[in-house]
């Protein structure tokens, strides 16, 4: 039954989604809001369960045995670099702030993944976090960490 890696991964995702849903049902309700804070986590949890079930039934163990996936050293280095960037991003978000950390993350991640146009990369990595910061802080009134920036 669990011969392919996809089936094993789908079971792990289902268990993670169940734990995620249990925690999302424990979020406190807020009065006077049309959509409560637990809506999106619940939708994401049920979506993860549905997609995991689809993955479980779409996997073919015979096909999996025929094609063994070989990851090159270059791809493995890129994967480890992006993972380290994500961990660094999470660690420095509160300290340095959303705008600066996001700029550095977007620029270095897209550079490492092969996009070498420096000007476009710099413009996008500057405008995207600044625009998101403005939308969240001033239009939606959801405070993102400003960190070392004075605003």
TrEMBL record:
<dbReference type="Pfam" id="PF07331">
    <property type="entry name" value="TctB"/>
</dbReference>
<feature type="transmembrane region" description="Helical">
    <location>
        <begin position="120"/>
        <end position="140"/>
    </location>
</feature>
<feature type="transmembrane region" description="Helical">
    <location>
        <begin position="9"/>
        <end position="27"/>
    </location>
</feature>
<keyword id="KW-0812">Transmembrane</keyword>
<feature type="domain" description="DUF1468">
    <location>
        <begin position="9"/>
        <end position="145"/>
    </location>
</feature>
<dbReference type="InterPro" id="IPR009936">
    <property type="entry name" value="DUF1468"/>
</dbReference>
<feature type="transmembrane region" description="Helical">
    <location>
        <begin position="78"/>
        <end position="108"/>
    </location>
</feature>
<protein>
    <recommendedName>
        <fullName>DUF1468 domain-containing protein</fullName>
    </recommendedName>
</protein>
<feature type="transmembrane region" description="Helical">
    <location>
        <begin position="39"/>
        <end position="57"/>
    </location>
</feature>
<keyword id="KW-1133">Transmembrane helix</keyword>
<keyword id="KW-0472">Membrane</keyword>
